[in-house]
Design a protein that fits this description.
The protein contains 11 helices and 28 strands. The structure holds guanosine-5'-triphosphate (GTP). It is an enzyme of class 3 (hydrolase).
Length: 545
């Protein structure tokens, strides 16, 4: 669980926010290419041009793995659609906007919940002083990872970023930098990714790309000249995106001749194929028929199928260094597929890759069958759903009023809501959920400590006196038009917030950081914030660890 603070005492930690230095940014001249002299051949990029079965034509230097990150609704999924169309991966006007948003809940709510990967092929010709003019356009393999924008799903974002070397940071040309732009920027920055700023929605009448460029400079020290201006709606400026990806983002590192090592990025259960794992091959080669082992469990499996997502599962029989794809290996449950695990050639000796940070459950709620006799059905539905959403924790509990049920831990309130909706829509379960709670730590007179997720579980032992209580806190980022500053400061202090930072991004927008008790924000903080700022506030929080 996250960082706790003594419920009665406030610890001040000075904020760390300022202009970071960007030592990781790739220089154009490093590749010997001229920044402005590139051309691309999107029309030549049809599915027919590429023989998917032969991935050997894509050594790491012909691969780019990138992600699209943004604040909610700034246009990530629409931009992803356009790139898939531009490369002929999906047909133009395929009649299904936000192609990569596959879940019913994603389509209904217009949000991305699960990160999705798609492999595209694109021909590109380098031009410039150092490049021989007669050079033929080269074929590149591009892995695009569409990520969720909402704070609750930032766990998915960090997982996706682990497989990437670069990210398109999409910012709405009218709304400018928002709270999750800041959070996602730092996730990408801390992962050492090359960041390409994309100012999207320039077709809107209120678009002000110059203001956004100035914000990108002042907030993140991103050079305005590097920003691409696009409209994913009208197609304006989109032709610059893939050339920038190819020219600015470095190829994946890794050693083709080393023994196989791959990172398990995600997994889901398919009724026909069993567990399908999304993997990034870091070193070596993976072939159908290979025997692989898991560093986490020591279990060995045979590779039954292997391929790429183009955008549907497309068998290739092999995945080479730097490539991202899927593996079917006879795993019976996604519990065997530990996200962040290293898979390697059976019997070889390799150093496991650094995994992901374990998930942190921020809110807990009880789930009970609406009809008490449906416990087994609910149990089955929860088991099936957690197969595809390993970020939920589940333990059995019982209540005198509601009978047998479950206590589930979620990453946040939207995550909890989405889980309920998916239980009903995808598994036909009818549930009653209890008011969300946050975990507390209690310290007793004998020096022992205990974490309690459910108030009903608080022990009432008269021999043990509670001497201290800790509650979880978060660091909240709030971006608002300047005229709402007073009201927001009042709200945050009423909610026991501690101001860590308060600056102006430009003449119209203020940026604030607060440490807030999680309990104060789980119930209605965001609604209240929206209402006092006429809907203009953007808000994000992270564990205050
Ligand atoms: N005018 C205009 N609208 C756009 C543009 N790009 C996307 N939109 C619209 O903006 C809305 C949000 O777009 P999405 O692509 O779903 O945004 P997202 O960032 O993927 O959102 P999440 O998945 O919720 O994080 C949709 O209604 C799009 O049609 C654009 O360039 N111009």
């Amino acid at each position: 669980m996250g960082s706790f603070r003594r419920a009665s005492k406030i610890f001040f930690r000075s904020p760390k926010f300022g202009s970071p230095s960007y030592t990781h940014r790739l220089s154009w001249t490093q590749f010997g290419w001229n920044r402005h002299a590139f051309c691309s051949h999107s029309r030549q990029n049809s599915r027919d041009n590429v023989n998917f079965a032969d991935l050997s034509q894509f050594p790491p230097e012909r691969i780019r793995n990138f992600s699209i990150i943004a604040h909610v609704d700034h246009g990530k999924s629409t931009l992803a659609d356009r790139l898939l169309e531009l490369t002929g991966t999906i047909k133009r006007g395929h009649g299904q906007p936000q192609y990569l948003d596959k879940l019913q809940v994603e389509r209904e709510r217009g949000i991305t919940v699960k990160a999705q990967t798609a492999t595209m092929f694109h021909k590109h010709k380098f031009q410039g002083a150092d490049v021989i003019d007669a050079q033929e356009p080269l074929n590149f393999l591009l892995n695009l990872i569409d990520t969720p924008g909402h704070v609750d799903f930032s766990y998915e974002v960090s997982r996706s970023l682990a497989a990437c070397q670069g990210a398109l940071l999409v910012v709405d040309a009218a709304q400018g930098v928002q709270a999750q732009t800041v959070a996602n920027f730092y996730l990408a920055f801390e992962s050492n990714l090359t960041i390409i700023p994309v100012i999207n929605k320039i077709d809107q009448p209120t678009a002000d790309p110059d203001r956004v460029k100035a914000q990108l400079k002042s907030m993140f020290d991103l050079d305005p000249i590097d920003a691409l201006l696009t409209s994913a709606k009208t197609g304006q400026g989109l032709e610059q995106v893939l050339p920038a990806v190819i020219e600015r983002i470095p190829p994946p590192p890794g050693n083709c001749s080393s023994p196989l090592r791959m990172l398990l990025l995600d997994s889901y259960y398919d009724e026909y194929k069993g567990v399908i794992c999304h993997v990034a091959v870091v070193d070596g080669t993976l072939r159908k028929g290979d025997k692989i082992s898991s560093a986490a469990t020591g279990q060995a499996y045979e590779v039954l199928d292997v391929g790429i997502m183009h955008p549907e599962l497309t068998p290739t029989g092999v995945l080479l260094t730097g490539q991202v794809g899927y593996v079917v290996s006879g795993m019976r449950s996604t519990k065997e597929a530990r996200v962040g695990d290293t898979l390697y050639q059976h019997r070889s000796i390799v150093e496991p890759l650094p995994g992901f940070k374990p998930v942190k459950h921020m809110v807990f709620s009880g789930l009970y069958p609406a009809d008490g006799s449906d416990f087994e059905a609910l149990n089955h539905a929860i088991e099936r759903l957690t197969c595809n959403d390993a970020s939920v924790s589940v333990t059995k509990e019982s209540s005198t009023a509601l009978g047998l049920g479950f206590r589930c831990g979620f990453l946040g309130l939207l995550h909890m809501d989405v889980f309920h909706q998916r239980l009903e829509q995808e598994h036909g379960a009818h549930v009653i959920s209890t008011v969300p709670t946050v975990p507390y730590i209690f310290e007793y007179s004998d020096g022992s400590k205990e974490q309690v997720q459910n108030p009903a579980a608080l022990p009432s032992n008269p021999k043990k006196r509670v001497t201290a209580t800790w509650e979880p806190t978060v660091i909240a980022t709030i971006i608002i038009p300047s005229e709402y500053v007073g009201a927001v400061i009042t709200l945050c202090s009423e909610r026991r917030g501690e101001q860590l930072e308060y600056t102006f991004m430009d003449s119209q927008r203020a940026f604030m950081k607060y440490r807030l008790p999680l309990r104060e924000i789980v119930v209605d903080f965001y609604n209240e914030l929206k209402s006092i700022t006429s809907g203009y506030a953007s808000f994000d929080y992270e564990d205050s660890e």
